[in-house]
Amino acid sequence: MTNQINRYITPAPENLGAFVQRGVAGAVTMLNLMRFRDVADYSSAATGEKGDQPSGSGAYSRYISETTQLIEDAGGEVILSGEGGNFLIGPTDEKWDAVLVIRFPTVAAFVGFTSTQEYQNAAIHRSAALEDSRILPIEERTVEELFA
């Protein structure tokens, strides 16, 4: 029996469509969990990277440096960044290297951010950096609204 490992690096088209159709009114906050490759893999990049291959975290650092201004230009902000680790509640063998929480004022602002050519160019580094990832869009609610 073969143990197949699912890896998630980019959104499946049906997931992106469902996210847009969800009709989030107002701000959307993206919870990002990331597991980095030991060495970045640019083999599937159309342009290909030449020279020394950075670590996965090094390639992700390049992605962040190239997208921070784009996030801000879209009205977004990084509201939390941190080192991950193992879950307190969750699978004991699942570990995430880093966590980012990024808030955008609207779904349209997020989609606009990811649709720019500048973002597409920078995303090459994100794809090369990641062994696996998760992004959970969060529609913000007060505790009272959430559990009413």
Describe the structure.
The protein is of the alpha+beta class and 148 residues long. It has a single domain (26-138), classed as Alpha-Beta Plaits. The chain has five helices and four strands; from the N terminus they run αβαββααβα. It has helices at residues 13-21, 56-73, 107-115, 117-129, 143-146, and strands spanning 28-36, 77-86, 95-104, 130-139. A four-stranded antiparallel sheet has the order 2-3-1-4. Strand 2 and strand 3 form a beta hairpin. Helix 2 runs antiparallel to helix 4 (117-129). The longest helix is centred in the middle third of the chain and has 18 residues, at 56-73. It is globular and about 50 Å long. The N and C termini lie far apart (46 Å).
DSSP strand count? 4
**What would you call the shape?**
globular
User: At the first level of CATH, what is the class?
Assistant: Alpha Beta
Cα-based radius of gyration, to the nearest Å = 16 Å
**End-to-end gap:** 46 Å
Strand order of the largest sheet: 2-3-1-4
CATH topology-level name:
Alpha-Beta Plaits
Tally of separate domains: 1
Largest sheet: 4 strands, antiparallel
User: What is the CATH architecture descriptor?
Assistant: 2-Layer Sandwich
Percent range for β-strand residues? 25-35%
